[in-house]
Amino acid sequence: MTDSAPSNPDTSAGSPPRRVVLVDGSGFIFRAFHALPPMTSPDGTPVNAVYGFCTMLMKLREDTKPDHMAVIFDTKGKSFRNDFFADYKAHRPPPPEELVPQFGLIRDATRAFNLPSIELEGYEADDLIATYARQAEAQGSDVIIVSSDKDLMQLVTDKVQMFDAMKNRTIGAAEVMEKFGCAPDKVIDIQALAGDSVDNVPGVPGIGIKTAAQLIDEYGDLDSLLERAGEIKQPKRREKLIENADLARISRDLVTLKTDVPVVEDLDGFDLKEPDPEVLLSFIASHGFKSLLSKVKAKFGGDVEFESPTQPGIGVNEVKVEKAEYELVQDEERLKHWVAQAEYLGTVAVDTETTSLDAHQAKLVGVSLSTEPGNGCYIPLGHVSGEAQGGFDFGDNPAESKDTPKQIKLERAIEILKPLLEDPGVLKVGQNLKYDMIVLARHGITVAPMDDTMVLSYVLDGTSHGHGMDELAELHLDYKPIKFADVCGSGKTQITFDQVPLDKALDYAAEDADITLRLHRLLKPRIAQEHMASVYETLDRPLVPVLAQMERLGVKVDAEILKNLSEDFAKRMASLEITIHEMAGEPFNLGSPKQLGEILFNKMSLPGGKKTKTGAWQTGADVLEGLAALGHDLPVKLLEWRQLSKLKSTYTDALANHINPQTGRVHTSYGQTNVNTGRLSSNDPNLQNIPIRSEEGRKIRTAFVAEPGHKLISADYSQIELRLLAHVAEIEALRTAFKNGEDIHAATASKVFGVPIEGMDPMVRRKAKAINFGIIYGISAFGLANQLGIPQKEAKAFIEAYFEIYPGIRTYMDEAKAFATKHGYVRTLFGRNIHISGINDKNGMRRSFGERAAINAPIQGGAADIIKRAMIAVPDALLDAGLKTRMLLQVHDELIFEAPEDEAEKAIKVIRDVMENAAHLSVPLIAEAGIGDSWADAH
DNA sequence: AACCTCACG
DNA sequence: GACGTACGTGAGGTTC
């Protein structure tokens, strides 16, 4: 043995498994459900298939002695087969009601056994199994596919066999012959001809398995058969085959399993691990599988008692039980009972019902609590009378009507709830709890400690799916909650929650708390299991109260300044409009790209018109600038008009409408779970895109002001992304430049273009700056050329030169791409996983997108992590320093504060110190700060 | 609701 | 050889 070539499995680093067991989880659950008598868990959930699954897994581990094992599932929804054959599996009836909740439970069971639970959107379990089976086979392993599905029989070889776990029967070539009358490698052709009514595979009419086998036996394979169909003696059969040749080919495509699915999980990761007895036992106990309990104890140890169904089980996934368990709380005594219960158990789900999505103006209407899955209560506090409900009763004050439903006085309920919600010994769980925290803060309650199921879901799953409660409930609990619209209606007839009758309000509100608690039990254990504890516990969870506080404070915006700007913009727009109409020779809507395109490229026949993929003329700023450079005046004026129009509608006018009349301030809402890379987003209004780049736009910032006697402080990280790049990509030359405090763009320019920093042409520096940014975005020659307005060839040369100067960049990029390709995600310095979609797409363009995203994500995401660390630490540091300075806004690399005038300088010292020490990299972090009366001045 | 355009980091 | 790209967002206006 002289080398360890990969072709020799025995000497390569991780030797391949001898036996790989792939369990068709989706196939099993259907068969087990029909084969086993009904069973229910203590809370009434049907669990017979789950029980069958657990016993099967126990038995398989014993009997097959696998080295590697995984359970593979179908995903909901369509697969790629529907792309070319819409009717595929279209006639399947929906699964029986008792089976539905078991889909989620069986995945939980898989995890409880510490086995990989594998599924991939757009692919069926069969394709994943095919892919893994062929991979394992290629490594020389024996494969056992646990399934009796005939669709998998095409995979059988001398290394791959199937096992029917219900009948305890092995399926090899002989059994395939029995079923299809042919060898496994001909199964596809047989199925293509015979079709399959269950899966809605058409096949050739009039040909069944028998005939198909006979034909394939005679002609060898499907293609030869279809080619030589004319030779068939029986006229009917001959005709059918010629007529339906295409149908046969489509059928073949449908039944052929995909063996090159871009799987995310590696076969190596399927190596069999022992389950954690605690986890497994609590799962089994909570579902009432008594007979299994002792077997599991005997095999794996552990001592969870059966009589502990309320133990916060891991992967516990109860579904909805009786609504009767939801309680309407209308007197203090019952409320105190619920508070005592929550205090005793130490965890409580909390949800508030209000009259508005705007937490700063919403009226508190009620609070719901849940202490254990299946229970819940609703405490109405601000519901109005039945008379007012849906009526036209504008005259009376409904709150004082005689018919006001019985409810605890708001102030009294707050008094009773406050100690619970502030008790450091009781965990409060919420879905988007930031909203409730703001509402409750207005009633003097500071909720802590807390967990947020929305944030948990985001940390675990990124933006691969949404994190709204309805979506999470459907995904994890297989349950569709009552919709808000079902209770309050929608559109014009929508009512506010205070008008909802109490019985309906109870069903809806208590259910929300109940579901939140269930989701928490499901998601929280995954944080540790999936190694996200640091990201969740040190970054995203502690950020929630920080954001809530920032949103509560808001920022003062001077309506008068906005109004004056708006009027100024309006006048100039009107005059531009006249000029442009004259130039065009006819009036048109300047805001309509469609009409503008007509004027420019049809009527005036200006050159260089390009169309978008929907066939519309492109009239973006870059196009208009191009035309302007050719000496055309209309585009110049139109660009001016567009700028003013944007500023007026989006900023002066819309922003003014967001000023809260009570506070005179604007309260944005930060999205903590919207951005793939871990950044925050800002909405209603978006305060992260207030103009600054243009002189006109910058004026908007003069309207963001401090209270009298106060100053605004703006502190921003200098070049944080490039510094992070220098650190993670270990680029020595870049590190040195940062350590020496050089102007990084000038330093780059000097190295790339070989010119001295002294007296550098600003254009040269600009080019280097564009390259520096381009690198962070996953540079391409096309993109850089576009950005700089230079030939692509020149851009390419720059990039080459850059790679020469900063070796390490290329390695970083290659490694980021390779990691993303292998895992489907990349990771930041702080352990946040960022899912990269499209990285394994067969479409080259989508794949390139993924590759650029893979390069950018660790940088952008790492910077986001760092400023989050700073944001968590700064408020405490200010308090510790005895300062009244408050953090108001975050704009990705910038933090805005409002400070009493006389402490502003002191505050800057504290802020900069915290920001610069938020992470310790191999390059210094620098935060620069400014003070001013407005945001424009502070920057 | 989709599309275009444009504001920010 | 053509495709059509810089990374990440949110929002307003027009059009269908």
Structure overview:
- Keywords: DNA damage, DNA repair, DNA replication, DNA-binding, DNA-directed DNA polymerase, Exonuclease, Hydrolase, Nuclease, Nucleotidyltransferase, Transferase.
- It holds the Pfam family DNA_pol_A.
- With 939 residues, the protein is α/β, with parallel strands linked by helices.
- Among the domains are: 19-270, 5'-nuclease (Rossmann fold, 3-Layer(aba) Sandwich), CATH 3.40.50; 328-391 and 404-554, Ribonuclease H-like superfamily/Ribonuclease H (Nucleotidyltransferase, domain 5); 556-666, Taq DNA Polymerase, Chain T, domain 4.
- The protein is built from 36 helices and 24 strands.
- The strands form six sheets. Strands 3-2-1-4-5-6 form a six-stranded mixed sheet. A six-stranded mixed sheet has the order 7-10-9-8-11-12. It has a four-stranded antiparallel sheet with strand order 14-15-13-18.
- Residues 1-13, 306-324 and 388-400 have low confidence and may be disordered.
- The structure holds a DNA duplex (9 and 16 nucleotides).
List the keywords.
939 residues; alpha/beta; Nucleotidyltransferase, domain 5; Taq DNA Polymerase, Chain T, domain 4; six-stranded mixed beta sheet; DNA-binding; 5'-3' exonuclease activity; DNA polymerase I; DNA damage; hydrolase; DNA-directed DNA polymerase
Secondary structure category: alpha/beta
Computed Rg: 33 Å
DSSP helix fraction: 40-55%
Read across the widest sheet, the strand sequence of neighbours is 3-2-1-4-5-6
Distance between the termini: 67 Å
